[in-house]
Fold each of these.
Amino acid sequence: MSRHSRRRFLTYLVAAPTLAVATKLGLDAYAPGSADAAIPTPPAPADLVDLGDLLILAGAPTAHMLVLRVDEEGLVHFRLPREEVGQGLTTAMAMLVAEELDTPLDHVRVRLDDARPELLFNQLTGSSNSVRSLYDPVRHTAAAARARLVRAAARQWGLDAQDLTVRRGVVSAPDGRTASYGSLSAAAASLDLGPLVVRPKKASEHTLVGTPTSRIDARDLVTGRQVYTLDLDVPGAKPCMVRRPPTINGTVKSVNNEAAVRAMPGVLDVVTIDTGVAVVAETFGQALDAKEALDVSWGPGTVDGLSDRDIRARLKAATPSLDLLGPLVKKVEGEFDFAFVGHAPLETNSAVADVRADRAEIWSGLKSPIVARAAIAEAVGLPASKVTVHVVQAGGSFGRRLFHDAALEAAVVSKKSGRPIRLMWSRIDDTRHGRMRPATHHRIRATYAAGQVLSFQHRVAAVETDFRHGLGDALTAAAASLPSGIGNATFAQTLFLTTVKSPYHFGITTQTLTEVPIRMHTGSWRSVYSANTRGAEEIIVDELAARLGKDPVTFRREFLRTARQRAVLDKVAEEGQWGRALPDGWAQGVGFHDEYKSCTACLVEIDATDPKKPRVTRAVIAADVGRVVNPRGLEAQLLGGLTDAISTTLRAGLHIDKGLPLEGSYSQFHYARQKDSPQDVRIHVIEGADEPGGAGELGVPAAVGAVANAYARATGTRPRSFPVTFDVDFTPFPR
């Protein structure tokens, strides 16, 4: 029995002069494959059910609540219950719609849906899950619309629907008669079309899906026409900025010069909120000047006495030694530290809010808008039904926009000030008081004998990650379906166990997480736990290979679990000319990663003739993510993952000094610039299974391992602290 024949479909419509449809489907179980090895590793929890599976399961009850509309001009309008933050999701969904409807891509309009609480857990953007969870529902929705339109034409002409064809949004009869989708939309909305057969296309029938396609918003992005939150024309909305405390989670005790600041040019209001003191003014320049002029007495924050050294010591103390057998076994081991890292999206935190006595309306880039709506309603004292939250396309996220900090602040200021406001965080605000990837400490120990790896242990200690953005609720909803032992775990443990796994047969393998409760502004950062965890493991894999006298690629190939994984590794080794001669101080490095039903390998070449200024000069990436909707979008995701890995492995991080990051701008947070990025990057997409896997998180961990391993080989060192070059080479901004 095929996978699709087990699904149940429900098609309904809304009576209107335009056609509107939605579909419902069930969730099929995932059956893991297996591979033989000398000392096989039992399946990890993430091999049985991964985080994407759980989110699909949590969203299944409302998966049918997608709305697609064909208007009288033949344009197709699709409401996307996810956020577009630059990952190309609107393009991928438009491609699926156009494919199933057999209509031109430029006839499809994708609109980001407002917060819809009836969707429950089906409006969360994250965990490489959007394409995976929407692939079937969107296809069935569009296929249902096509079936109705074709049946409407058949009724008008007195023909059998099976005899009609569709091309570019036009239905044709064998005798030459034609009808556009627009002319059929009203008739297709009729309640009396009889039973319909809804069958999405097979992959072999696709003409658009799987074809490299430029983003549907590309022209707007490069010409400045793309509308972001602060571009919105909301009548009467006044600029607002917030003076923030000198330490994380600091509080306001008093404002000592409020009258003087209120008298400054253009200042309309000064408002104290939980996170600082907000200034509302006629222009952002005036708001900035006024908030800088504020004299505020601050209360303590939650980490005032902590700096990097203190935090590292607490993390190290939470990872006890693995050396239980001492000299009785042959082993390779290492301890690793990864610094805090900011998300640093190009668009800083921003929101527009108009809060009245009886209603509220909010606009912001939000990946979890339902949670944002509930929090805003509580904060402004309104029923949730009186709060409208509009999701606006955002200029980057990398996990940052899972939180709704700006939207909540804007709503509170609007209520207290009694006017609509446009809130903008400065770059310093975003860097110092925004979310950050937690610092981590790792202990890894592998034992070996007779050319085989007997055991692989990895203990991770991380500063506590804040998951109060809806993901925890979704995991709770799906907990009953988790394998034994996971369902009772905390949110962090569940996320760790359903994402982190080893792709190798390394005997008895254990990977554990301990969270250290330090109250900082943490949040999920691209690839969450896997970037550091699997990155560190790939370093140990290289060292294991050296200890056993094996080439790093050959060693990985021998221990990878599946033929699919080996094919990806073989591709980068071949295309990257693994082992080719390079000058002194240059080297190649390789890394591998498997997650979210996808796998990738990365090979880089690095110039580390000056170990303090290493530069990746060339990279080759291969990936198998199952069914690929837009290869060009996938390439962009993998290139972004490579750039994130180069940045955080070599130079980018946040120094914590007495309760606050020192960095406050792009000039100080050393994310890779063009001069730091390889000019030669080649990405190879290997077509895999019929269903898509995840791609957004996939590209970082393998690239972290590849860059670190290349640096180690080029310099003859064993890097253990990342980023490897992490000097305070700037003068910090005042607090």
Amino acid sequence: MGKYEKLAREIVHNVGGKDNISSLTHCVTRLRFKLKDESMANDDVLKHMDGVVTVMKSGGQYQVVIGNHVPDVYTDVLAIANIKDNEDIEDNKKPKKVLDSFIDVISGIFQPILGVMCAAGMLKGFNILFNVLGWYSADSGTYKVINSMGDALFMYLPVLLGYTAAKKFKLQPFVGLLIGLAMCYPSIQLDALSASGKPLTTLFSGTIFSSPVYLKVFGIPLISMNYTSTVVPVILIVYFASRIQKILDKIIPDVVKFFIVPMITIFVSLTLGFLLIGPIATYASGAIAHGIIAVRDFSPLLAGLLVGLFWQVLVIFGLHWGLIPVYINNIMTLGYDNIMIPFFAATFVQTAIVLAIIFKTKDKKLKALCIPAAVSGIFGITEPAIYGITLPRKKLFIMSCIVSGIAGAFYGHYNLREFTFGGMGIFEFTTMINPNDKSLSNLMIAIIGVLAAMVIAFVLTMFIHKDNDEKVTNAENEDKNSTKVIKKSTAYSPINGITIPLSEVKDAAFSQELLGKGIGIEPLKGEVVAPFDGTVATLFPTKHAIGLVSNEGLEVLIHIGLNTVQLNGKHFEAFVEQGDTVKKGQKLVAFNIEEIKKAGYSIETPIIVTNSNDYFEIIETKEVKVNAGDVLITGIV
């Protein structure tokens, strides 16, 4: 078991237990669950859990946002829930919306190969760049060997997709692999057949669907296609094969099922695939590509504006997967994509905002949070910046969308194109080098758009973002020099104990202020009392944490100990219920300090103002020791 075992156990427990998990995958920053019953998941517990950034529900998936270390957490969750990598445990019987099903299928098929796809694209991109720079020629052995490293994946893409689609559709994986291999078999490709002689006939002559026929299968004309590098045909054929296998599994005797089922499945699916499914899918892919280009040609600027403007919103909800098939289809059929690529500057806009905050803020904690987010953003991973910094500061997030939209309009107007798949962030520049254009003009458009967007975002952030210290100073000056009165909301200490700066609490989610500003307390007495007059907004079933809202609107979370959710309520006793009205000093929860320590848990208790952004400043006490009822936190409006 890995170092995130405790976190993994908490996640599995709070998504409803391992019996509630239908399947699990992950992307760059998120665990993507398919749950049998989402109502069994404890959303609030997960959102406030140490090590979890937030929870999202989209595309039929229950997404737990972790951060850059999600692969390690994913591995531990698999072990604890006894799930095999990418395994579907059981079909979710609830009917899904069409969009949810589509996004779930696409993400499930492409996620497993995205990393190696990016790696292959980067090799192709750098190879083209070095050739353009004159470091070696396209005829050299160096170029050809490196090109084979990057190009092989895209030439034989149906093979990889056949395997991942088979796992998604519950077809025997190696049957899917064989389907992909057969579709790439050299002797049935159009270019090989056309080189062998004249066609027997030509179907749909004079149209965009004109297709030569070189072979007949059982007397039926075989429409010749090149299936290497294609996407849609293999996915549809594998899906058809999965339906055939399901039927055969019910009717073929067990004694011969081992080899008869895959044999018949492969024969029927590929025969119909070559004769009907493949050609129809190829025609449809070509028609979609041409249709999208026609729509884009109506107003490239508007198309780019919309993609850039809404891209980050799509990412937040995981809906950007809906554009992936269009993106891949364009590159495979047209040789480039200019539909999705206007999003490109959005990544760098987020990075520029974070860099501006680093320069401007005097808040050491915020600066410490921004630095890793900026590094991640440079390499194309923006979730830490979005969830941790810009989204909580709504004006910055809205501004980032607007600037990204402007950059997208620029890219649309100047027809920015991406010629191959590649890495993210700075590594994606190489994919925009046109192999047929030694001037690098397309790459220059990409660079100009990114630089302009970053400058605009940086400057606007310097104006928009107000450091908290400056806000308090300005508010205090207004109070002294005018009739305006500063409104304050006070939370009194709910615990007797020794204070700890929040930055020193041994949990990143609290110490980095992902949930809000506040202070920590090392309790000396196992009792929590109400820090003000207000209402119990949330009482966790495990009784280790309680959320309160004061009559003045101050929202406070009291989290007793670290990772104590795993005690499942043991050593805790609650004296109130969710929704109760409470008075300052009223007893809320009792807990056994010694027993919690014996169980191996820290009793450091973060006390967080979860709506910190509603205040000019959150001022914590400077006292080392506090008693229940002492002033602990003041929020200045």
Amino acid sequence: MLLTAAQRRFSMIGGAIGLAGIVLFIALAVAMLLTASGIQSLTSVLTDPYIGRVLRFTLLQAFLSTLFSVAFAIPLAQALARQPNFPGRQWIVRLMALPMGLPVLIGALGLIGIWGRQGVLNSLLLRLGLAEPISIYGLAGILLAHVFFNLPLACRLMLMSLERIPGEYWLVGAGLGMRPKDVFRFIEWPVLRSVIPGIAGLIFMLCATSFTLVLTLGGGPAATTIEVAIYQSLRFDFDPGRAVSLSVLQIVLTAIILGGMALLRSVDDEGTTAGKTVKRPDGTSLPVRLLDITLLSLGVAFLLLPLISITVAGLRANLIKLFIEPIFWRSAITSASIATCSAVLSSSIAILLIRARHTITLGRTRTHVDRAFFAATGSASSFVLLVPPIVLATGWFMALRSIGDIHAYAPLLIAAINALMSLPFVMRVLEPAYMTHQQRTQRLSASLGIAGFTRLRFVDWPAMRRPLLTALSFAAALSLGDLGAVALFGSDSLVTLPWLIYSRMGSYRTSDADGLALILGIVCLLLTIAGTTGNARKEAVLHG
């Protein structure tokens, strides 16, 4: 027996506690929404013209964002696949990962610095004597921002698929004298066609539940998604009935999208692909090389210029003044406390679930209860995708407002919501590492009688330290840069760094916002580097 009865019971109880915590936290929020909604409120979802308009815009911007992200990613992925020896290719692939780990609010500030009214492009057009045709606000700005964040994700996933094409295909293509268009039609497109639906579904889900980008760049009631409308209903109008109706609508919409995604082929980023060389016959001609250089240059400029803008604008700000402001340190301490609690809670829940799943796999016989529990613990991290952060926050807002001061509970509530939002990533990092480690060491440890704290200290901790630090650092970075849950509870008594940045933007103190964004971006980048240094494989991160 690899596990004693006591060890098995301990693992199963831990997994049950973790699963019950997730289910109860989400279920109580949803139950409060349904209880507060009533028949009349639910009926208003179908009859209120405003809600119908918000729903149509949510679907429209998600569809167009997905279309543009996928369409622009295809030629960029082709260019990277055709030019394995392109100078700086490794750094271009790494650049593709930056928007996925960048706090959304900071990315929005960078885009405003390039495409905004006072941005680089409009300033250049004015110097040339032209009007300002570029507007970062409204539908155009939302689409631009979504493409900025999701095009790299789509490109990386497509590149992984293209680089898995067997080398024999290229030998046959070269032997037949295939031109680039024939290569795309007969070799590349069948591969891309199999993964594009899954990629598109993932991006559509991210865009349909987008909050911070739409809140920052929406530009008014005409460009409002469901989640932003929920926030506005509670924060500005204080119309709980409408907020509840919108929350129920968001849950239904998310459930439909997740159901559709379940029917599509799943996509996984197995890591960066910068080191893999593929010999292809269609990337050597001068016209194709010039085309690829142009595409890669445009792609790098599109992704890199906003990052440069953030850095330059942040350095121009009076950083010393920001550092000595009490509000900065108060918000930094609040953000760090919430991020630490969120990271620890998310990792703890993940460990409980993973240990229970591993225990079930060791059983010689599995009952129906074991199979159901195994499936439930595996799907637990996906439960949080069904109810986005702003909807969870709305449900708990409705539940706690009758108890007393909501802001007294807000920090713990925000930490819990952020922990659930980072749980899919944490599970993805820890579970493969834990399962592999147990396969390698469990039999030997059992035969030597190594157990308890001794096993944890000398066997488990050295092997699991790096994956655990990776999970903690990314979970903390995600929480640090999140504006979703705190947007509903932010006040003079509860200020985080993202909320402070957003407040400074709203009061037209853009220089302060730029400086704060640079500080926050550096902290999140350092956390990301700390978590990935020394890893052979780097996991991709999914935002809202």
